[in-house]
Write a structure and sequence with these properties.
This protein is mainly α and 321 residues long. The chain has 2 domains: 149 residues, no CATH class; 105 residues, no CATH class. It is 50% helix and 7% strand. It is built from 9 helices and 5 strands, in the order ββαααααααααβββ. It has a 3-stranded antiparallel β-sheet, with helices on one face. A two-stranded antiparallel sheet has the order 1-2. The longest helix has 46 residues. The protein starts with a strand and ends in a 36-residue tail after the last strand.
Length: 321
């Protein structure tokens, strides 16, 4: 029968809430599919966490601005909400923390024999001397540690340094395991948008390679103009997205411009046998092919009276993009 739980201040209906998993026991729910399969993962989550989880997770992945240089903050907040719900349903969240009633009940359920095993597992390898040195606590470290092995060792050092008893140490171990689970699940979700961004960057690089190929300069001007315009348009809008402009606004503007270009061929002008494409957003010398987006107006273009070495090859006009 569905039950209601509170997740980050919000009431959510879930299929059920499982009791905390005792050390050495097998979880009562289906494990996460490995290797990761997104369809199976989503269906598993729908059954285990409910329709609200599935809806919000799908929306978070779809609406994520994966173009940003910095992580999408709204997307990250949604991931925190999802991970909190998962911890609650799986019995991995203890209301009130180490001092709460939920934790006290959980710790009382662990047998004396199991606690002896936990005590042995938390010993530092080696001589047992306090050799933590100047190693930072894992909570302050920025060192990548996807497996969690470095942080597990650090917790053992923290226990010696801070004088934790077995109960306190085990509580921090579970917190660390929760964090590692969250990191893995975040990585699954991140990979969806990251793959789409990688494909778009690969497409941009492919156009760049084309317009820098040896035979490209021998192509007719209208062919060169179209290819270079495509490169600059993709790069121009991609850079706007990566700077954080609203994705729906930028993509809508890009689609409108592409539709307009389908109806009218791009204009070009010739000056001293050098073709300059100029639509007010990006400009390219089709001789030197300086592939940098430009926000200047045509009147700001600078051409020296004496031709010298251009950005890419001798004898090209110098245009400061």
């Amino acid at each position: 029968m569905p039950v209601s739980v509170t997740v980050r201040g919000e009431e959510v209906e879930v299929p059920c809430v499982h009791p905390a998993q005792l050390p050495g026991s097998i979880p009562p729910w289906q494990p996460v599919p490995e290797p990761h399969d997104e369809n199976k993962h989503a269906e598993r989550g729908r059954v285990l966490y409910g329709e609200t989880w599935l809806r919000r997770r799908s929306a978070a992945i779809e609406n994520r601005n994966f173009y940003l240089y910095e992580p999408d903050r709204q997307y990250r907040e949604e991931q925190k909400w999802l991970r909190s719900l998962e911890e609650t349903v799986e019995g991995r969240r203890f209301q009130g923390g180490l001092e709460g009633m939920a934790w006290a009940e959980y710790w009382a359920m662990i047998s004396y024999e199991t606690k002896l095993v936990l005590e042995q597992d938390c010993q530092m390898p080696g001589s047992g001397q306090d050799d933590e040195g100047d190693v930072e606590s894992e909570y302050d470290s920025d060192i990548p540690d996807p497996s969690g092995d470095m942080r597990r060792v650090q917790l053992k050092r923290d226990r010696v340094r801070d004088g934790w008893d077995l109960e306190t140490y085990h509580y921090h171990v579970l917190r660390l395991e929760n964090r590692l689970i969250a990191e893995r699940r975040n990585k699954y979700e991140d990979a969806i948008g990251d793959e789409q961004l990688r494909k778009e960057l690969d497409e941009l690089r492919a156009v760049f390679v084309t317009i820098n190929s040896p035979g490209f300069l021998q192509s007719p001007d209208h062919v060169k103009s179209k290819a270079i315009d495509l490169y600059h348009r993709k790069r121009y809008y991609l850079e706007r997205l990566r700077r954080g402009e609203p994705r729906d606004v930028v993509l809508a503007e890009q689609r409108r411009e592409e539709e307009q270009d389908e109806q009218a061929s791009p204009s070009s002008s010739t000056d001293n046998d050098r073709t300059i494409q100029d639509d007010g957003k990006y400009k390219t010398c089709l001789t030197c092919i300086d592939l940098q987006p430009c926000m200047r107006t045509p009147s700001q273009l600078f051409k020296p009276t004496v031709l010298g070495s251009g950005p890419s090859q001798p004898g090209c006009c110098l245009i400061p993009w």
